[in-house]
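SAMPLE LOG
Freezer: B-3
Tube label: C17
Construct: single chain, 496 aa
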Amino acid sequence: MQISFAAPAPAIEAGSWVVAASEGRALTPAAIKADKASGGALTRALKFARFTGKSGEMLEVLAPERLGASRILLVGLGKPASLDLKGLEVIGAQILARLESAGEKSATLEIEVPKSAKLKSGDAAAHLAFGARLRSYSFEKYRTRNLDEYKRHLETLRLATSDAAAARKAWQGLDAVANGVLFARDLVNEPPNVLYPAEFARRAKALAKLGLKVEVLGEAEMKKQGFGALLGVGQGSERESQLVVMQWNGARKKGEPVAFVGKGVCFDSGGLSLKPGSGMMGMKGDMGGAAAVTGAMMALAARKAKVNAVGVIGLVENMPDGGAIRPDDVLTSLSGQTIEVLNTDAEGRLVLADGLHYAKTLGCTHLINAATLTGACVVALGNLNAGLFSNDDDTCEKFQSAMRSSGEKFWRLPCTDDYREQIKSQIADIRNTGGTRWGGAITAAMFLKEFVGETPWVHLDIAGAAWNEDAKPWLAKGPSGIGVRSIIEWVRSYSA
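STRUCTURE (predicted):
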């Protein structure tokens, strides 16, 4: 879909003409213009419709043949005082979904924001386009039949705005973020026979064209350095484990980067603690944290962000062959801490343990890790919110501010020392589970905390929110790419 910005025209000559009204049926100037151009079609339709102008409401009328446009779509903006950029993104996504369902090929959005909303015209247009771009996502790479049923029909989306230059400037940054989100979604959608650790590493390495410095460590190098926890997870697979380190140096001063660490279990069978068959379905997505980190690094590089950042992703398969780790095994992590393995299906935290410690050796000042880590977090929060844990209130508050700007939803859960007893081991420094069903998301976070030390840290357990079983008005069915947008917003706090 091609997205462009231009000054408003007297009328639209092809495709859908999308205009707006505030709550109370207050038509915007563009809507009044469209009504006049259509010979009062909107006015007549409003007499017989329940449309009130609430946010997301829509009223569609066929345009008269003399107008050239195929239809006029009236969209509700809600109360002007409540309208913000995140709300516009949702409206943009809802418009896109409506146009796609109608089979439209082109559309022009002429949606002026009421002055009382205190939003700039260019920013408003760019965020409408951002929402539409995110909602337009589809993954049809492996379909060979009935392609028209799944094909995205909308080819061109034009946004008419009084400040097209400002809209284009704002769009440059937003488009980079959208590309990062969609790249993360693509990674999660790939089947595990295609996206195994080495292939994931290859795709990350290809991002060097954006200016990222990308290094890939294979098993021999990791064994030499002592990545005992990460390698332990992957030793049951014939696919070689990988560690990918992506660096972006965009700040004026060198060094002192912020760091992101992602869990990249490209397929999780549970290992010898084997999942039931139904529990393995969807486990290609157990690398959603690594996908989010990779998408965020891609967006930072594309935006030329003025920050030094490091992305570390541990890529493994958790498989149950004769060489796999066993319950009761003890692993020695990169940090030197020993880990008693109680459950081989609690593997993601082992990968992150070495990844977090490695990121610390690179001199990072702050850490974020993202992982589809625990089913317990899904039980606690469902699919709408992801889990948020931290060892530092100031860092956590900055992330919460970032998530409010991004529109992604996280809920903070406790990560305090009174939970530490539950992961004590009788024979090693620590064990990889709490030993009971209760508070599993918290004990997993406590395990990770052992490898962070005093570095300010945020842990994102995205297990529930990383995949959408049903399409939402603002999000297509499938992988969500959660984490990318909030990480990018959080980085703004540390840009220099």
